[in-house]
Amino acid sequence: MHKEQIAFQNESSDSKKKRLSNIISIFQKEYPSTKCHLNFTNPLELLVGTILSAQCTDERVNQVTKELFRKYKTATDYADLKLQELEKDIRPTGFFRNKARAIINCCKVLADKYEGSIPASMEKLIELEGVGRKTANVVLGNYFGIPGIIVDTHVRRLAKRLGLSDKTDPDRIEKDFIELVPENKWTFFSNALSDHGRMVCKARKPLCKICKISHLCPSAELD
Length: 223
Ligand code: SF4
Prior knowledge:
The protein has about 220 residues and is an all-alpha fold. It has helices at about 5-10, 15-30, 45-50, 60-70, 75-80, 85-90, 95-115, 120-125, 135-140, 155-160, 170-180, 185-200. It has twelve helices and no strands.
């Protein structure tokens, strides 16, 4: 292990917060207009798109939802669908049987309990089928402007590489980030970290030599 990695491992919480604040400043210059990559025009579309995005790329979800959102506009439209019909519509996103069931059951509750609207509340959102904390935070942060830490596959990987969380469970990573990141930066930081993971800190081969935060990263490989 490099000297730097050992130093980062024994890092105090204050030093971690300072390092993170520097990372956020750099991200504000690198990814000033970072945002959710799913296409949507209302919270229902964002909710459905996020359920479909599990184990699937945003690009593929956007291809599927282009037609899906043209066909179905309201929670009742989805709630009234036959399972097989929705399965056919969303098949290319993978895990389509579970996703179709989740969307229909979730929309039945939205139609019956919330008159088809989407509740802007973590507690209420996570009661819906197919909606975990990540999906709820995507909707709260990117539509309602309520800060949320969104732990997607990129954020999970980078949390570890950057020595910001040693957890693997997304809900526990979210808790660690809540302690470290100022609340008004939660949504920005998650989206920017995800962008950094897509473009620079790639899963197979991180591009450390061009990484703007390499001096703040315990996993930097610059040799
Ligand atoms: S230095 Fe390398 S490992 Fe660290 S964040 Fe940048 S690309 Fe990822």
